Amino acid sequence: MSLADDLATLRASARDRLSAATSADAVEALRHELLGRSGELTMLLRSLGTAPEGERPALGRVANEVRGEIEAAINGRLETLRGEDLERRLSDEALDMSAPGSPVRVGHLHPVMTLMRDLREIFHAFGFEVYEGPEIETDEYNFELLNIPPDHPARDLWDTLYVAEPGSVEAGDPRPAVDGTILRTHTSPVQVRAMRALDLPIRVITPGRCFRYEAVDASHGFEFHQIEGLVIDRDTSLADLKGMLEEIARPLYGRDTRTRFRPGYYPFTEPSVAFDVACLVCGGPGCAACGRTGWMTILGAGMVHPEVIRSGGFDPDEVQGYAFGLGPDRMTMLRHGIGDIRLFFSADLRFVTQFPEGR
Ligand code: DAH
To answer: I need a surface site. Which of 138, 154, 209, 211 has the fewest CB within 10 A?
Structure first.
């Protein structure tokens, strides 16, 4: 038999064997048998050298044709098998293309984060940008630069968590770090950081987490959130602060919300005020939630103390400004009627998923 006959036989047998193959694996095995390195076509080509020289080019052409045909037949067969497989699975109802997909669980923000996001948007409309500072602070920024010297009685207002001097815990002798590293007890230290970093006019808010050495109960956590606000410019007044806060209260608590300023005390503002809104539970007459006063304090504020302006690197005779600090955790409790602050950090999805508006 000549090589030409062998090629013709292979061509026919490949076609038959491929159409008899009933699985993709069987087709792949045939690919190997026919075209592989020691496959049937390869073997035939090896004997090309023994054919009469004049016939070799023609035989080579035929061999290439056969290879092309076999490859096309393999791909065609695989395609057919895939189609049959899909049809079989559809008719077996193993794969029901009309069935609804399984729901993908999409998370959402924690209710406190949702409230902080809403506040960011409101303050953004008033021209405030976000300026963040570190949660691990120093005594200097947290207290001293805010006009609270080491032995000032106002320090009692902030029960501080101190970071230990390296090695002192292991040595059984825990001492506060000599460089004064602490966990910030409020976001106010970022006032000084912002003043030192930014040019006038400064108009920033600082949302963030704070820490205090607290006896934890339904209304006190050892970690909580604050949003600090700071405006520093050449011509700002308490009237600006009051007008701005009144406008902020409206989108939060409604157009007709009544508000008031009340004298307050903070070492870093002078004068200092508390900003109250009409009780969100009773609306004014007085109830248990507002201690029968009809008012709820939602933030502390005031004109930035000249010493703090100086800490920030400005001359208090030339610039002044106002600052405020509010507590998003308490505001979230009021928004949703949540009675226990400990739920916020409970890491319990049954709690968090009750507040899906943070999507
Ligand atoms: N830092 C204060 C606190 O933690 C809150 C505060 C009060 C911030 C008055 C201010 C402010 O900026 O002006 O209790």
So the answer is: 209
